[in-house]
Write a structure and sequence with these properties.
One of its GO terms (molecular function) is luteinizing hormone receptor activity. This protein has about 190 residues and is mainly beta. About 10% of the residues lie in helices and about 25% in strands.
Length: about 190
């Protein structure tokens, strides 16, 4: 019986490397064409969380998650190719409570109306992206008390426009904002 040679683990690693460089597999029920638009058609039972990481998509189009009525959490992270989220991308997802958009530095534009009619949304996090202006959050229409909007490490956003939260029908909104000086500011909007 001979000892295993050190070349075998190295060979296995080299065989797996091309798959790792292509990115993560697209989760069911989504389709993720390289450099294309994400599509996650529903309905889909027993799907409560959708994690979209390291994907090669450029766009999250309008109605991308249509019919995924049972989903409560959508996480989009670590995608170097994502550039744009279109209007109505997150539309009418009645059970969705969390949206995390993080570490997508090439995401430069979130169209107005991307987040619409999300009555159970409790937490929206948009961090470490390349967006240049605060996304439109006025059409979320969450009925959840103590809604949290976290905006951090978006170094191209320099101001919050007037009436940026007009139309949000929450009793209380907490905004966590991290500015260029790394200070985390917490605002309560009664």
């Amino acid at each position: 019986m001979g000892r295993p040679t050190p070349e075998l683990p190295l060979l296995a690693l080299l065989l797996l490397l091309p798959q790792a460089l292509r990115g993560a597999p697209c989760p069911e029920p989504c389709r993720c064409p390289p450099d294309g638009a994400l599509s996650c058609p529903g309905p889909r039972t027993n799907l409560s969380r959708l994690s979209l990481t390291y994907l090669p998509i450029k766009v999250i189009p309008s109605q991308a998650f249509r019919g995924l009525d049972e989903v409560v959490k959508i996480e989009i992270s670590q995608s170097d190719s994502l550039e744009k989220i279109e209007a109505n991308a997150f539309d009418n997802l009645l059970n969705l409570s969390e949206i995390l958009i993080q570490n997508t530095k090439n995401l430069v534009y979130i169209e107005p109306g991307a987040f619409t009619n999300l009555p159970r949304l409790k937490y929206l996090s948009i961090c470490n992206t390349g967006i240049r202006k605060l996304p439109d959050v006025t059409k979320i229409f969450s009925s959840e008390i103590n809604f949290i909007l976290e905006i951090c490490d978006n170094l191209h956003i320099t101001t919050i426009p007037g009436n940026a939260f007009q139309g949000m029908n929450n009793e209380s909104i907490t905004l966590l904002w991290q500015d260029r000086d790394e200070a985390i500011n917490k605002f309560k909007c009664p």
